[in-house]
Amino acid sequence: MAATIIDGKAVAARVRAEVADGVAAFIAAHGRAPGLVGIQVGDDPASELYQAGKARAADEVGMISRRVTLPGATTQAELDAIIDDLNADPGVDGMLVQLPVPDQLSEPLIANRIHPDKDVDGFSPISLGRLMRGEPGSVPCTPQGVMRLLREGGVPLEGAHAVVVGRSLIVGKPQSMLLLAAHCTVTIAHSRTRDLPALCRQADILVAAVGRPEMVRADWVRPGAAVIDVGINRTDDGLRGDVAFDDVAAVAGWLTPVPGGVGPTTIAYLLVNTLEAAWRRSGSDSYQGVHL
Question: What positions carry a catalytic annotation?
Fold first, then answer.
């Protein structure tokens, strides 16, 4: 058996095209483009790369993007004041603070400070509560991308047993909620799960999101299962996922590569969240051109 490789770049391109159509519709209805602001504290090279990529993607679909770059010594009070100004700015529909932040700053305080209607990362307690309740709101971008990849890959969801390895607020926990909403039976596993390989072998859908390079091997995977690799690990041999790609490709039914799998869809769904935040803030129904 050779796995079907799900091309995240191609899926992300389709999502971006849908967003561009939605941005054009928003401009026609409201006379302005949706606005996205990215805040970066410090000069971490990886954060700089991510922020530049997000801004470029927003520009390409017709949004207005802004970047706020702050010194690494920025205090919590200084960052709070900037977030408050952006919360009050009617031209800003979405904002995000690039993680990680310096040690003197608090990620929970940042998540609570950003207005939930502008929280396009989907990390605030209110956003996560809306996800739990199935109410409209921003959902973390990576889990949305995973769902799109599964659906575009033709992976059967209803009734499937999904195992999510990882329990972060960014991926694991929201991913489990989206899979539940798609009528999967979901197990959340982690580094302390007993006999993790045996549990993974039970999965029809296996989502690996633990940050350990090539941890998932072929003998962890049930033949024919869909394996979604969320990991991005920088090693001496280059970027590697949480899944041993060549090993698992011989067993799985579907598989995402690293790079070129989940990563491109994460930025695409940041654009989706910004567009939908703009529609919600305008008082109109959320644009329906982009779907999971």
Answer: 54, 98, 121
Task: Tell me the β-bridge partners of 240.
Answer: 233
DSSP state of 231: -
CA distance 207 to 14: 22
Mode of pairing for the β-strands spanning 94-97 and 161-165: unpaired
**Chain centroid offset of residue 48 CA:** 18
Q: What is the pLDDT of residues 243-282, one digit of tens each?
A: 999 999 999 999 999 999 999 999 999 999 999 999 999 9
Identify whether residues 186 and 245 lie together within a single domain. Answer: yes
Range of the domain at 196: 141-263
CA proximity to 157, closest of 180, 124, 177: 180
Q: Which of 198, 210, 204 is nearest to 240 (CA)?
A: 210
| Three-state secondary structure readout of 32-101 | CCCEEEEEEECCCHHHHHHHHHHHHHHHHCCCEEEEEEECCCCCHHHHHHHHHHHHHCCCCCEEEECCCC
Rounded to whole angstroms, how far apart are CA atoms 14 and 166? 28
Instruction: Kindly report the CATH number assigned to the domain that includes residue 234.
Output: 3.40.50.720
Backbone angles phi, psi at 16, to 5 degrees: -65, -40
For residue 90, whether the previous peptide bond is cis, meaning omega lies within 30 degrees of 0, is no
pTM: 0.95
